[in-house]
């Protein structure tokens, strides 16, 4: 995986939790059950919550217990999903269909010693183009663009 680190952000109106993921982690359980490595308070949920993340063939995987189902842009009603930078998953109660948690998966940009701050003087421009195209004044070259 070449040492890339990720952040899994778990939230709802009562919960905000960031969990760091790196290729040193084989498997990690997050939720309200006793076997979870990262615990959430059971009294904040009407159902038991247990999500598991693990690295498989260089790709992060995500699954949830039977009390929940995953809603993702490309998937609804699933118990398992592959994770990619920028993914947002909604976890719903399997019975009531109520939204339980929102989970975001992103690259941990703060992990590098690289300073990403850049000052671009645009005072003399009427218009600025930012992107990956050759005619952009500010070019973004990344596998994430």
The total of beta strands comes to 13
Kindly estimate the percentage of residues that lie in beta strands according to DSSP.
35-45%
Secondary-structure element pattern, one letter each: EEEEEEEEEEEEE
Structural class: mainly beta
Q: How many DSSP helices?
A: 0
Radius of gyration: 19 Å
Q: What portion of residues is helical?
A: under 10%
Give the N-terminus to C-terminus distance in angstroms: 19 Å
Low-pLDDT stretches are none
- Oligomeric state of the chains present here: single chain
pLDDT averaged residue by residue: 87
Biggest sheet strand line-up: 2-1-11-10-7-8
* Rough outline: elongated
How is the main sheet built?
6 strands, antiparallel
Concise synopsis of the structure shown:
The chain is mainly beta and 145 residues long. It contains no helices and 13 strands. It is elongated and about 60 Å long.
Folded structure, characterized:
The protein is an all-beta fold and 145 residues long. The protein has strands at residues 6-11, 16-21, 27-31, 38-39, 50-56, 59-64, 68-72, 75-78, 80-82, 88-93, 99-107, 130-131, 138-139. Strand 5 and strand 6 form a beta hairpin. The protein is elongated and about 60 Å long. It starts with 5 loop residues before the first strand and ends in a 6-residue tail after the last strand. The relative contact order is 0.16.
């Amino acid at each position: 995986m070449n040492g890339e680190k990720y952040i899994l952000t778990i939230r709802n109106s009562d919960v905000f939790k960031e969990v760091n993921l790196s290729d040193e982690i084989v498997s990690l359980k997050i939720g309200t059950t006793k076997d979870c490595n990262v615990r959430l308070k059971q009294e904040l949920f009407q159902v038991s919550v247990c999500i598991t993340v693990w690295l498989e063939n260089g790709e992060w995987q995500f699954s949830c217990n039977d009390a929940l189902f995953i809603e993702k842009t490309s998937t609804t009603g699933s118990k398992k999903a592959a994770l990619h930078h920028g993914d947002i998953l909604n976890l719903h109660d399997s019975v009531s269909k109520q939204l339980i948690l929102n989970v975001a998966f992103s690259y941990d940009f703060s992990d590098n010693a690289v300073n990403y701050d850049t000052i671009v003087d645009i005072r003399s421009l009427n218009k600025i183009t930012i992107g990956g195209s050759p005619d952009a004044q500010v070019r973004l070259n990344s596998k994430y663009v």
